[in-house]
Amino acid sequence: MALSQSVEDYLKAIYILQTEGETATTTNIANALDVSSASVTNMFKKLAKMNLLKYQSYKGATLTNAGKMIALEVLRHHRLLELYLKDVMGYSWDEVHDEAENLEHHISEQFEDRIAELLNHPTHDPHGDPIPTKDGVVPEMARLSITKAEVNVSYVVGRVKDQDPEKLRYLEQIGIIPGVRVEILEKAPFNGPVKIRLEGESEQVVGHAVASDVYLLDVDQ
Question: Which of 158, 160, 147, 157 minimizes the C-alpha distance to 211?
Fold first, then answer.
């Protein structure tokens, strides 16, 4: 069954919210997709009839297994495209998200397979987000934000939220990118800034809002 781009966008948005530990309410999805709450409610009811999600008023939506597999396939396209755009075509990591959004619904399975083979079957995209396998297996995803990490413990940057190009440019400029080792030196109270030591002993002070979008892994992972 061929699905519309809008249906795929909804399923992907619900999956991403759920993996971030949030509820797929009409308000959250409306904000994520920049549509009205009424439009979200109508789409939720449509997708529920298609057995792609379960929906209860005021409780939000949860994906069925069928809906989850579609969302993972769209995410696989998106994240493979991001990596292809960056590593092969020379895009910067702050440019690839929007381009991949435009392309993810239109590539064939053969094209997807060719990209994966060309990139040596990668597990994560340029921002550290996991790339689902064709079978729907999702590799490890970094979940510990800098704001919740322990002080005086070494970590490795695993993932950075990718929706804000300006924020990505800033983080790259100060050296906070996936794969870099960091140590949290100090966290100011009341959602204050975080002081961080990077590889090479350089230190940076990062605002709470930015730090909360950077996720860490243990050094031995």
Answer: 147
Regarding pTM above 0.85, the answer is yes
Distance between CA atoms of residues 215 and 155, nearest Å: 10
5-63: CATH topology is Arc Repressor Mutant, subunit A (1.10.10)
Cα angle 31, 40, 21 (rounded to 5 degrees) comes to: 55
Distance CA 163, CA 168 (A): 8
Which token pair is 211?
A: 């730090």
Task: CATH number for 144-218: choose from 2.60.40.10, 3.30.450.20, 2.30.30.90, 3.90.550.10.
Answer: 2.30.30.90
pLDDT single digits (tens) 120-130: 999 999 999 99
State the alpha helices, DSSP H only, in 20-59. 26-33, 37-49
Return the domain boundaries, the chain: 5-63, 144-218
User: To the nearest whole number, what is the mean pLDDT of the chain?
Assistant: 95
The β-bridge relationship of strands 214-218 and 154-160 is antiparallel
Q: With pLDDT > 90 as the criterion, what percentage of the chain qualifies?
A: 92
Closest C-alpha to 41, from 25, 19, 52, 65: 25
Residue with tokens 């991403």: 16
What are the CA-CA distances from residue 77 to residues 2, 16, 94 (Å)? 16, 14, 18
- Which pLDDT does position 1 carry in this prediction? 60
- pLDDT tens profile 151-173: 999 999 999 998 899 999 999 99
